[in-house]
UniProtKB/TrEMBL annotation:
InterPro entries: Uma2
CDD domains the UniProt entry points to: DUF820-like (cd06260)
Domain Putative restriction endonuclease residue range list: 26-198
Keywords: Coiled coil, Endonuclease, Hydrolase, Nuclease
GO molecular function: endonuclease activity
Coiled-coil portions: 234-268
Name of the protein in question: Uma2 family endonuclease
Provenance organism: Anabaena azotica FACHB-119
Length: 272
């Protein structure tokens, strides 16, 4: 009689943790008590705006911008603040009273309110950023209310990296009205600038970015791009100089050959 070994079911090997644990898409990136905390995009996009905010109508020493900095706005509630993803001011010094780096931007201690604010939409902040949140009694107003009614910021820009939608509002008669884009850009003649989207590489990342342009639509370069352009121009200038030198040498050789030919024919080239 033949005896067969008893079958013992084998358990599945354990799956690696990256297949079973939550991913970054599953885990919250926001603090419920303070939504809109920075992620990679909220760091890089404001940095790009900061590096290229160069109003042509203002001296560089009177242009200030900041990202993720507390903005205090209410003298009756001095602890209330908003934290724009990025904002730009003209008519103020880069240093507080010309002496110190700012810890925050305090309305009642500064000579000017922000001129333009950019908010980058997040799922946790969209309603407040677009003025759709319900007003709560004895609670701070929404960003929309602060920018429109209290600080009266002339330009309010909202950009979503999820839909690539750029929305812009301008203060008209005490309230925000949508701005029609011109060739995909928001024109701000008071600054000599426009703001629009640009597909390209910043900090080695290819995507659609929000960028500053001139009013005519010329891209304002950030420092790394300026170095690249300057290097390319230097290479082109060197090539042109080399080519001009080669052409001059060729012309000289031809002239010498012609003079020698004339001598062979009994003609003095110096007397021709």
């Amino acid at each position: 009689m033949t005896t067969f070994p008893k079958y013992i079911p084998q358990s599945e090997p354990p799956r690696p943790p990256w297949e079973t644990l939550p991913t970054m898409y599953d885990l919250p990136s926001d603090n419920p008590e303070e939504p809109g905390l920075p992620d990679d995009f909220h760091f890089l996009q404001p940095l790009l705006l900061y590096l290229t905010f160069q109003p042509t109508n203002w001296h560089p020493e009177l242009v200030y911008s900041a990202a993720d900095l507390n903005l205090y706005y209410d003298v009756e509630h001095p602890l209330w603040y908003k934290r724009p993803d990025w904002f730009g001011v003209v008519g103020v010094q880069k240093l507080y009273k010309g002496e110190d780096l700012r810890l925050s931007y305090v309305k009642w201690q500064e000579p000017a309110n922000p001129f333009v604010v950019v908010e980058l939409l997040s799922p946790g902040t969209e309603d407040e950023d677009l003025g759709n949140s319900q007003k709560t009694e004895n609670k701070p107003p929404s960003k929309w209310e602060v920018y429109e009614k209290i600080l009266r910021i002339p330009y309010y820009i909202v950009f979503s990296r999820y839909t690539n939608e750029l929305r812009a509002f301008q203060l008209v008669g005490g309230h925000y009205e949508p701005i029609n884009l011109t060739e995909g850009r928001v024109l701000m003649p008071e600054l000599g600038l426009s703001l629009g989207t640009w597909q390209g590489v910043f900090r080695d990342i290819e995507k659609l970015w929000l960028r500053w342009f001139t009013l005519a639509g010329e891209l304002i370069l950030e420092p790394t791009e300026e170095v690249i352009v300057a290097t390319e121009r230097a290479i082109i200038a060197e090539q042109e100089t080399r080519e001009a030198k080669q052409e001059a040498e060729q012309a000289k050789r031809k002239a010498e050959q012609l003079a020698e030919r004339l001598r062979q024919l009994g003609v003095n080239p110096d007397e021709v």
